[in-house]
Design goal:
The complex is a heterodimer of chains A (205) and B (434).
Chain A (H helix, E strand, L loop, with lengths): L27 H11 L9 H11 L6 H11 L3 H8 L14 E6 L2 H5 L2 H12 L12 E6 L11 E3 L2 E3 L4 H13 L4 H13 L7
Parallel strand pairs in A: 1-2
Antiparallel strand pairs in A: 1-3, 3-4
Helix pairs in contact in A: 1-2, 2-3, 2-8, 3-4
Chain B lengths: L18 H6 L4 H8 L2 H11 L11 H6 L10 E6 L8 H8 L1 H14 L4 E6 L4 H16 L4 E4 L4 E9 L9 H8 L26 E5 H13 L1 H5 L11 E8 L5 E6 L4 H7 L8 E5 L8 E2 H6 L4 H6 L8 E6 L4 H15 L5 H18 L7 H12 L6 H16 L1 H10 L15
Parallel strand pairs in B: 1-2, 1-5, 2-4, 6-10
Antiparallel strand pairs in B: 3-4, 6-7, 8-9, 8-10
Chain lengths: 205, 434
């Protein structure tokens, strides 16, 4: 019998990006957080998801090519692998830089029968954007999302770490005004919150 | 019957989310009892309790716990599936936010029984409030010597880590969850009998236990009061024991989580939630979006229990119970369901990736008034081509609600296809905001 066909060299992995090709942006704090995270798992690969959260915070809410390259470098993965992971999950912003606030509107089952599509149409018209788009002033990104699992509060929306519902036209108007006035990015803040809950009390800065 | 509160008894008390408040209500008695037994004794208690997995499949919990090698030769892992994503379900969220110590204690008990080195709580990324509550509980437990090294001076070491997802329904499937936890795309893996069970080779190919939040939360009271006591609850049913939390939503007056004993009529659940709002009951999706819907007549007959729900053609599932009133268009509801699965299919296998997309496309043309004759049969055919042929349960879960609705509301689909409009006279994207 002949040897089975082997394509590629199974024990060699694509090399991670080299440090000299990169602009490393992680702050001192981020590096420390990543070091703490590495102790949670038996290998570096498992840190990819939490490290992407760190990167999402460090890069202002957007996982640009540079951000993905830095994650790949720090975890010794190939760029393609990290990009493959990041693009699978809906909460990582890989398409374009989101606005200061990402408004996620649930139109899934319970919300759909409790007015979720009205909320969706109302916000689209009010902000003048389509699904996934950001307003020209860079304040809001609007996204239609699947079940947020807060069906008792249908129709519900999520902005950063806040669940808001049930909403109606008046509460939405008030919310938009409130968000417009707030300078802090709820996208970055959410990414930070997610990083923090991974860390034990002794590991948090 | 009324609510039977085992897990949610103290949920409304904010002190219960603190260690002092939890222990004041008898918290950690279960772990102390467990640590006084041998490992097999703990598993035997869970076996006697008849506890079945609360994540949707209803698999007996003790079989998993018992399946771990008894003589430890390698690291063992414990995972809590807190990636609650099933549309209509929000019980794990409440459990984590309000009773996080039940989860921490339950996982510590399971960790002891299965000699796990550490546990990972995989929480859905959106659930930041739940994650913060669990984080606070874990920190407190570490500070009090209830986690970490030498727990309660017994020599038991057990660590708990939180790992957040990043937005993917598929990661609720156990093998996909493990892929995600290991830093990959959340895609499912080959399963038994084609691959070893997770209890043999799971996370990092090590023996692994994976259970739902609610399942772990049941462990403290089982150990405290004994498995036989737990098994006496819900004993009127064929093979369902204890209580189940149902997340009631839709057109009801008081949506929320209601914990009931198995054997409770489904109609009572509706009463607990304050009855129907805006019109008479038309249909009910009793166990999350994946389960077939049933008509109002069947709701009257349905008894809550894993086997009993099967008699009316549905399932307990994850307990996401949606009640729909007479003004709901079933075709549009199913259209939205299929859109969900089409968007959340991970794309790994052809029956699911293509099938869910076709279901969504066919239903989309029907709700836009462009249904063709033969679409009814086409939908049935696509469902049968997905069901049982997909790599993981997501494909089945996408086919069941469509096939179920075609079976119980055929007239609505036929009417929509034939006339280009719904039997329920309301514009597309109908209801007003609350």
């Amino acid at each position: 019998m002949s040897e089975p066909l082997r394509i590629g060299r199974p024990h060699e992995r694509p090399a991670p990006p080299k440090a000299e090709d990169l602009n490393l942006h992680f702050s001192e704090r981020a590096v420390q957080e990543l070091e703490a995270l590495k102790t949670h798992y038996p290998d570096l690969k498992a840190c990819v998801l939490p490290c992407l959260w760190i990167a999402q915070r460090e890069y202002g809410g957007f996982l640009s090519g540079e951000a993905l390259a830095e994650v790949a470098f720090r975890l010794k993965r190939s760029y393609a692998e990290v990009e493959g992971v990041a693009t699978f999950y809906s909460m990582y912003n890989v398409a374009h830089k989101p606005g200061r606030h990402k408004i996620e509107v649930c139109t899934c089952l319970t919300c759909s029968v409790c007015g979720g599509f009205r909320v969706w149409e109302y916000l689209k018209a009010k902000l003048g954007v389509e699904n996934g788009q950001t307003t020209p002033d860079g304040v809001f990104t609007l996204e239609e999302v699947e079940c947020l699992d807060a069906c008792d509060r249908a129709p519900v929306i999520q902005v950063g770490d806040r669940y808001i519902g049930p909403v109606n036209e008046a509460t939405l108007d008030a919310l938009l005004a409130e968000l417009r006035a707030s300078e802090e990015s709820s996208v970055v803040q959410m990414a930070n919150e997610i990083v923090q809950v991974h860390l034990a009390a002794s590991e948090r800065a | 019957m009324a609510e039977r509160l085992l897990l949610l008894e103290h949920a409304a008390d904010p002190n219960f989310a603190t260690l002092a408040g939890y222990q004041a209500k008898g918290g950690y008695a279960g772990l102390r009892k467990a640590l006084a037994m041998d490992r097999q004794g703990v598993i035997d208690q869970v076996k006697a309790s008849g506890l079945r997995g609360r994540g949707g499949a209803g698999f007996p919990a003790w079989i998993k716990w018992n399946g771990i090698e008894k003589t430890k030769t390698q690291p063992h892992y414990l995972i809590c599936n807190a990636d609650e994503g099933e549309p209509g379900t929000f019980k794990d969220k409440q459990l984590m936010e309000q009773t996080p110590f039940l989860l921490v204690e339950g996982m510590t008990i399971a960790g002891f029984a299965t000699q796990a080195d550490c546990g990972y709580i995989y929480i859905r990324g959106e659930f930041i409030d739940a994650a913060r509550a669990v984080r606070k509980a874990i920190d407190e437990a570490y500070a009090a010597g209830l986690l970490g090294k030498n727990i309660l001076g017994t020599g038991l070491d057990f660590d708990l880590y939180i790992h957040l997802g990043a937005g993917s329904y598929e990661c609720g499937e156990e093998s996909a969850l493990m892929s995600s936890l290991m830093g990959e795309r959340g895609m499912p893996r080959l399963k038994f009998p084609h691959a070893p069970l997770p209890t043999v080779a799971g996370l990092w190919d090590r023996p692994t236990i994976i259970n739902n939040v609610e399942t772990y939360c049941c462990a403290p009271s089982i150990l405290t009061n004994g498995g036989e006591w737990y098994a006496s609850i819900g004993a009127s049913t064929k093979n369902s024991r204890g209580t189940k939390i149902f997340s009631v939503s839709g057109h009801v007056n008081r949506p929320g989580n209601y914990e009931v004993e198995f054997g409770t009529p489904l109609a009572e659940l509706l009463q607990m939630a304050g009855g129907m709002k805006g019109g008479a009951l038309k249909a009910c999706v009793p166990g999350g979006s994946s389960v077939p819907m049933i008509r109002a007549e069947a709701v009257e007959r349905a008894i809550i229990g894993y086997e009993e729900m099967g008699e009316v053609g549905s399932m307990v599932g994850s307990g996401g119970c949606m009640f729909l009133n007479e003004h709901t268009c079933i075709v549009r509801f199913i259209w939205r369901t299929s859109l969900f699965y089409a968007r959340e299919s991970c794309g790994k296998c052809t029956p699911c990736r293509e099938g869910t997309k076709w279901l969504a496309q066919i239903l989309d043309r029907i709700v836009k008034g462009g249904g063709r004759s033969g679409d009814f049969e086409l939908l049935q055919q696509v469902c049968s081509q997905i069901d049982g042929r997909s790599f993981c349960g997501l494909g089945d879960a996408a086919a069941w609600p469509v096939a179920g609705a075609l079976k119980v509301f055929p007239e609505e689909f036929r009417h929509f296809i034939e006339h280009g409009k719904s039997v329920v006279d309301s514009p597309l994207r109908e209801p007003a905001m609350v």
